[in-house]
Structure formats: structure tokens, C-alpha cells
Design a protein that fits this description.
With about 250 residues, the chain is α/β, with parallel strands linked by helices. Helices cover about 40% and strands about 25% of the residues. Strands 6-7-8-3-9-10 form a six-stranded mixed β-sheet, with helices on both faces. Strands 2-1-4-5 form a four-stranded antiparallel β-sheet, with helices on one face. Helix 3 crosses helix 4 and helix 6 packs across helix 8. Bound molecules: adenosine-5'-diphosphate and magnesium ion (MG). The site of adenosine-5'-diphosphate has 12 residues, from strand 1, strand 2 and helix 1.
Length: about 250
């Protein structure tokens, strides 16, 4: 088998605030391979975000090792780290973090300008249009964030993450601010992206949302307490088709 894209070994992260020590992550060993779609689950305070911040190279572990695509992140200097991160990872958050009064396209293009300064203006345009088309917003690329619904804003944020062509998409509670139907649609988009080859690691505390993933990792008190294949995977595309049918019927009645 090929090298896991993410390898965690006995990962520990302790926060110290004054006299108090919080053991947020206490010894996590985990491999994630290319093409996986993993849900990291667990109640609030179980260490999910801390673990994701480590995987996202935003935070360094207190002890243990983290290899990103076989590279020991701890040994890199800031510049090397930024480069690896920009090349390998895309981020999606609960709050969409879009710039207001800025078009969808500019929101997608801007980070690419900073992370890949050598990409030409023309390629930047082309790549951002492609990314917006991929998330179903090709027609709305000129709209400002405030003119888009929550679900559309999250799609722009996903396009922004995709535009650098990452291998792994990291999402922390991506449906946390969305209603049920919109959440299913976003999970459908993730399933599509995953089918096209991108690896996805998603934090959620909702079982309903984790149900769309291929694998479920459950954390409690900073440790992994279960790690299972999701045999009863929900398929968002089918569920949306059923919802649409029901709506059509209601309209005709
Ligand atoms: P989750 O995302 O599962 O809710 P977190 O990783 O955010 O969990 O937090 C795990 C534990 O670490 C919690 O007890 C939390 O209060 C603590 N914690 C998280 N971030 C910090 C920080 N920057 N400083 C101190 N304690 C923190
Ligand atoms: Mg969290």
C-alpha cells in the first residue's frame, strides 16, 4: 500500500494556561490514505479541532509525530511548511470567512494570489472559474458574498479551497451554520469531490452528517475511542432527488 497521506503517531497536544494544563489530545495514532473520506466525531471538547489544527499544520504537537505525505512537518522551517501546506491542503470552516462586498470569483482568486504567486493572472482567472463551476456556481461568480445564500457562500469557500488543487480537503464543521437540506447538498458536493479523487477529513459532532463519510473516527477526552468503516453510507445525490420529487408533488397538489 502507498504511504498514507496523513500519519499521526502517539500525538499529544497539551495546552498550558498559567497553572492549568489541558490535555486536548492524548496519544492519537491514525493513518489516512488517499481517496478516503473520514469523519472525525466526538462531543464538544473531545479534541477534534486540536487534532485538525495539527493536521492542517496550524499547530505543533507537544509530542508524537505528524507526517504529511511522508514529510515530518516538525522538521520544516516556516517557509517550507507554508509551501507544503499550500500545495497539499485546502481548508473549509463552519463560518465561510468570505470577504464582503467582494465577488465570488475574487474571493476564490485572492488566496491563490498569495499562495501561488507564480500563477499568472490569466491562469488565476481560469482556475477560479473552473473551481466555481465545480461547486455549481459558475453563473454566480460575479455575485457579492452578501447576495448569496449560506449554502452558496459555503460553496464559494469550497471553491476557494479547491483552487490551489490540494490533495486533502480539511473541513471543520462545514455544515454547522446550514439548514438540513443545504447540509445534504454540501455533503453531496463533498461526496462528488471525493469520488473524483480528493481526500477529505471532516470534523463534525453530528451523526447525521458523518453518515455521508466512508470512515468514522470517534474521539473522547483527546483519544480515539473507535475507528470504523461506515457500512451504511448515506448518498446525498439520492436523498436530494427524493426531496425534489416530494417538492414537485407538493407543488402539483
Ligand atoms: P473540540 O473541537 O472537539 O470541541 P478542542 O480541540 O477545541 O475540542 O478542545 C479540546 C480541549 O482543549 C478542550 O478542553 C478545550 O477547552 C481545550 N483547548 C482548545 N484550544 C485551547 C487553547 N488554545 N488553549 C487552552 N485550551 C484549549
Ligand atoms: Mg471544535
Amino acid at each position: 500500500m502507498s504511504t498514507p497521506v496523513i500519519q499521526l503517531r502517539e500525538l499529544v497536544r497539551t495546552y498550558k494556561t498559567g497553572e492549568v494544563e489541558v490535555k486536548a489530545v492524548r496519544g492519537v495514532t491514525l493513518d489516512i490514505h488517499r481517496g478516503e473520506f473520514v469523519a472525525i466525531m466526538g462531543s464538544s471538547g473531545s479534541g477534534k479541532s486540536t487534532l485538525m489544527n495539527t493536521i492542517g499544520c496550524l499547530d505543533k504537537p507537544t509530542s508524537g509525530t505528524f507526517l504529511l505525505d511522508g514529510v515530518a512537518v516538525a522538521n520544516l522551517d516556516r517557509k517550507q511548511l507554508a509551501k507544503l501546506r499550500n500545495k497539499k491542503l485546502g481548508f473549509v470552516f463552519q463560518s465561510f470567512n468570505l470577504l464582503a462586498r467582494t465577488s465570488a470569483q475574487e474571493n476564490v482568486e485572492l488566496p491563490l494570489f498569495y499562495s501561488h504567486p507564480l500563477v499568472t493572472l490569466r491562469d488565476r482567472h481560469e482556475r477560479s472559474v473552473q473551481a466555481l463551476e465545480k461547486v455549481g456556481l459558475g453563473e454566480r461568480r460575479g455575485h457579492h458574498s452578501s447576495q448569496l445564500s449560506g449554502g452558496q457562500q459555503q460553496r464559494v469557500a469550497i471553491a476557494r479551497a479547491l483552487v490551489s488543487r490540494p490533495e486533502v480537503l480539511l473541513a471543520d464543521e462545514p455544515t454547522g451554520n446550514l439548514d438540513t437540506r443545504t447540509s445534504i447538498e454540501i455533503m453531496g458536493l463533498f461526496q462528488e469531490l471525493n469520488e473524483s479523487g480528493i481526500t477529505i477529513v471532516m470534523v463534525t459532532h453530528e451523526l447525521d452528517i458523518a453518515a455521508y463519510c466512508k470512515r468514522m473516527v470517534v474521539m473522547r477526552d483527546g483519544q480515539v475511542i473507535s475507528d470504523t468503516v461506515n457500512e451504511k453510507r448515506r448518498v446525498a445525490r439520492d436523498e436530494i432527488a427524493v426531496l425534489n420529487q416530494a417538492e414537485e408533488k407538493a407543488k402539483l397538489a
